[in-house]
Amino acid sequence: MKNQELIALNYLNDLKKLGIVYLASIIVVQILFYKEFFINTLRLTTGFFWLFVLPGFSIMLNYEKKFDFIERLIIGTALGFAIVGTIGYSLGLLGISMKLHQYLIPIATIAIGLYLTARNKH
Q1: What is the pLDDT of residues 40-79, one digit of tens each?
Q2: CA-CA-CA-CA dihedral for 107, 110, 113, 119, to nearest 10
Q3: pLDDT at 111
Q4: What's the mean pLDDT when you consider all of the chain?
Q5: For residues 36 and 19, what is the distance between their CA atoms, to the nearest angstrom?
Q6: Which residues touch 57 (CB under 8 Å, ≥6 apart)?
Q7: Confidence of residue 97 (pLDDT cuts 50, 70, 90)
Q8: Which of 36, 60, 40, 47 is closest to 117 using CA atoms?
Q9: Taking Cα atoms as reference points, which of 72, 63, 80 lies closest to residue 116?
Q10: Is the alpha carbon torsion for 23, 53, 112, 107 positive or negative?
Q11: Is 69 exposed, middle or buried (0-12, 13-18, 19+ CB in 10 A)?
């Protein structure tokens, strides 16, 4: 296989694992909040993944040779908390509405992470 095909295969495997973690998280949250409706636990888990896990994990894509998937997921989630909190605070000081933070910060962070990963791979 070519180098680019191996990289694409690794990313596809990471996406599959991330999907499994997402589904497992939905199940765990539903078990913990068993009195809540399923849609509420789905929104909670999806919001958590969108705001913290995906941005942090996308930044950690650069370290796929240093860290295993689970390590990148845990460190990336902590990194996602730090990035979203810091950027959200800074955007709030600039007067940007909190309603836009849930869209701007994750999209920008994921785009930056993918850009840095693509730049480092070539």
Answers
A1: 999 999 999 999 999 999 999 888 889 999 999 999 999 9
A2: -70
A3: 94
A4: 90
A5: 23
A6: 18, 72, 73, 76, 77, 80, 113
A7: confident
A8: 60
A9: 63
A10: positive
A11: middle
Q: Say how many domains are in the chain.
A: 1
The pTM assigned to this predicted structure is 0.86
Q: What's the CA gap between 49 and 47, in Å, rounded?
A: 5
For residue 78, the enclosing domain spans 3-121
Select from 90, 89, 83, 71 the least CA-distant residue to 107: 83
3-state helix, strand, coil in the chain (%, to 5): 85, 0, 15
C-alpha torsion angle, residues 73, 104, 47, 9 (rounded to 10): -40
Residue 34 is encoded by which pair of tokens? 């068993």
